Amino acid sequence: MRIARPALALSLVAAFCPSAHATPEEARAWLARMSEALATREYDGLFTHSNRRQSETMRIVHRMEGAYSVERLVSLDGSGREIVRTPREVHAYLPDRGVVLVEPRTDGGSLLKALPRPGAELDAQYLLKVRGGSRLLGREVRIIEIRPRDAYRYGYRLWLDEKTAMPLRSEICDQAGRPVERIQFSKLDMHTNMPASETEPSVDASGFRWVRSARPGSDRRVAMAAAGWRPLKVPPGFRLVGSRVQSLPGHPMPVQHLVFSDGFASVSVFIEPGSRTAPAPAEASRMGAASTFTTTVRGYMITAVGEVPPTTVRDIATSLAPVADAGVTPPPAR
Amino acid sequence: MSDQILEQMSALLDGELPQDQIGLLVRRMERDTELKRAFGSYVLIGETLRAPGGITASRGFATQVQAVLDDACTALPASSGTHPARRAGWLKPAAAVAVAAGTAFAAVLLIRPGDQPGSSGVAAVADVDPVPTTIADFAAADSASPTPEQSQRLAGYLVAHSQFATPIGRRSVWTSVLAQDPGIARVAYETETAEGL
Questions:
Q1: Prediction pTM value
Q2: Which of A83, A94, A278, B163 has the highest local Cβ count within 10 Å?
Q3: B166, closest residue in chain A (CA to CA)
Q4: Residue B161 pLDDT more than 60?
């Protein structure tokens, strides 16, 4: 089943939102330009990623291979980890673990599939403002402010280069407008015909363990059972936009992957058979703006992750229940 | 580490490194683990020095850190570099601390990275934004390094999820994957609920 893609729908935000300094059409146009620039331009930048706990400098390189975008993100001063998105796969190099996680790219790498699509459901969840008159990195910028109407989602502030619409600085903010995460570029160069070597990983992965997704259908019984879960109630504005059974690197069994979206923020829920041991206590964690919540229900481990406040992932994860009337009942814990 | 490298890193963070030297320095950083770590400490310390009041550790702990910084500044020999004004800024104590005290570096890790509009050494916003700029705190129950299995499992989830996030959201999720494991903090929902919902 194809998952509806809330991703790249930044232009949705502006569709029906009022703006103090610009028309909604102008704001929508800026966000659409940003999405297109991020997906189609070639660039090489250094930025500092800061959250409450730490700050790291990273390099991002984005180039095009025909209609396919290729991207490389590397931590320059921290873990040494890298993520490379090739036209077909996403590779996460974890040298501290001696592991490379390999995830098939679900959009097939097609640029056309990655471009934003308009939508109208956001007005109830976000307010939009556009401000101008600032400079960053010596460039004129516009500031797009996306404010959440409640505490179930984060807001965004985006400093967009007037010329290229590239975000030179971005902040993810709580409902009070306080940043919980900041990405600020200290260098951003636009390129044409960037050499492929720039998106090659710098990590020497020889000797690393390559952890790939198992082949789908390796255990159909478990997969079918896992597919019988649905949410009883989710936070306002969020709805189930897709469901699929997939394999994840390092997971022996297929996992049901549900995607919830409010049209801008998204939450993924992964449901998989738990271990034979006693259920682990529910656990919540936060990494910058990403929140996770893991709990065990009827022998299944349910994990919700997303760039939303911790309350949102908890409420979604704990709302899931087996769908008895679907004729699919999860088997007991192994 | 040579003074020339220190100068180049300082200039890079100030946005003053000539274009032809940026690529060489970045490639060198990608290959040189020690250089990566040193650069990270400069970024952290630089942000700390630019963000007075952004301390999340106790006052006593912050005072100790400041004392280390002061001692390091005093002990650092005069610069022989070509950018004395810049080196007289935040890099000098940063460099000194980096070589002087591992405890200082550990302490700096507990200091909230924050900045003020226009105060960044690398990029300044011309107008003052009437919005909060300090990184928000949150209710953390505790923090602990996850097991390798937990770390790998979370990374797998985040990579899978990132494919359904917005471009900005995906960048945020990816940076979480790239961050070091101590970046994971457990959440105390009681406080979170009282604050937000």
A1: 0.66
A2: A83
A3: A7
A4: yes
Burial B46-71 (b: 16+ CB within 10 A, else e): bbbbbbeebbebeeeebeebbebbeb
The domain tally of chain B equals 2
- Encode pLDDT of A180-219 as tens digits: 899 999 999 999 989 999 999 998 898 998 887 655 544 5
B 138-177 near A (Cβ less than 8 A): 138, 140, 143, 148, 151-177
Residue in A54, A157, A182 nearest the CB of B179: A54
Asked if the Cβ–Cβ distance from A250 to B156 is below 8 Å, we say yes
Q: Is B140 left (phi over 0), alpha (psi -120 to 50) or beta?
A: beta
Give the distance from residue B21's alpha carbon to the nearest chain A alpha carbon, in angstroms. Answer: 13
Q: What is the ipTM of this complex?
A: 0.80
Per-residue model confidence as pLDDT tens digits over B75-90: 433 333 334 344 334 3
Per-residue pLDDT at B136 exceeds 80: no
User: Which tokens hold the place of A67?
Assistant: 């209609």
B136, B183, B192: residue with CB nearest A179: B136
Q: What single letter denotes the amino acid at residue A155? A: G
Which residue range forms the structural domain that includes residue B153? 138-197
Place of tokens 């690197």: A249
Domain boundary among A160, A177, A210: A210
Query: Between chains, do A151 and B37 touch, taking CB under 8 Å as contact?
Result: no
Instruction: Using CA coordinates, name the residue in chain B closest to A252.
Output: B153
The span from the CA of B90 to the CA of B67, in Å, is 15
Which of B105, B129, B153 terminates a domain? The answer is B129
Query: Does the structure show a pLDDT above 90 at A221?
Result: no
Structural domain for A302, as ranges: 214-326
